[in-house]
Amino acid sequence: MTALPRLMHTMLHVADIDRTLAFYCGVLGMTVQIDRRNPATQHRNAFVGYGPYDTTAQVEFVSYGDRPTYDKGDAFGHLAIGVNDIAGLCAKVEAAGATVSRPPKLLPSGSTIAFIVDPDGYEIEVIQPAQIAGAKPA
Amino acid sequence: MTALPRLMHTMLHVADIDRTLAFYCGVLGMTVQIDRRNPATQHRNAFVGYGPYDTTAQVEFVSYGDRPTYDKGDAFGHLAIGVNDIAGLCAKVEAAGATVSRPPKLLPSGSTIAFIVDPDGYEIEVIQPAQIAGAKPA
After folding, report:
1. Given A11, A49, A71, which is nearest B7 (Cβ)?
2. I need a labelling partner for A85 at 20 to 30 A (CA). Which of A129, B58, B97, B107 fits?
3. pLDDT tens, N- to C-terminus, chain B (138 residues)
4. What are the chain B neighbours of A137 within 8 Å (beta carbons)?
5. ipTM of this model?
6. What pTM did the predictor assign?
């Protein structure tokens, strides 16, 4: 267990967790840390991340069998992931049939950012940080 | 810079960033890592977290001067933070005039969880993890 306090996760409702995991794991390279199902209620929740649940920030996905859609509103903005190869990741996203809504753009800070869209329509900012110590965000 | 890939942040729109920072920093104990304003557009975005932007997960808050409210929908669920003293934190939340929507509850796993509400109405799950190695989530 890493030091507390810490940000542990962000929870998002999704329509189909299998489809979600195929994207976040198969395309974005996260791994499933926890996957729990309640057959009686059709409730399922899964935690994915780039490291263990006990030490790294996760995304929790929740679905209910009788709720195929959710209202996104406009309050939630996006998740953001940092990667080493933004061009490679965006190519992988497109090869998987998913959308790159804003192609990679180099910013004055030296970071490169892009936006992609997950299977439920959630936006994900992809950041390839400037390769300098103390780089500021895009 | 820690190893990539990693989850970097979750972005939420808020009505009043000063009010938001007073809660996330003054009550929850995060610190402001970045705070940028564009006077021309009244756009402001601030990153807060329990550690540096370059190495730890953050929450990004964004506001626009002409958008006092946002539609939350029901797709986004919550943020979750892990703490050492859930009772103390919930007392602090109530002392600040904010809402503890679900008081601390000890789960069979040994974790204790509660839910609190931030100034914009976003839910935050508070988790005091079981004090055992490899503790599973609440």
Report:
1. A49
2. B58
3. 568 999 999 999 999 999 999 999 999 999 999 999 998 888 999 999 999 999 999 999 999 987 888 999 999 999 999 999 999 999 999 999 999 999 999 999 899 999 999 999 999 999 999 964 444 555
4. 34, 47, 53
5. 0.93
6. 0.93
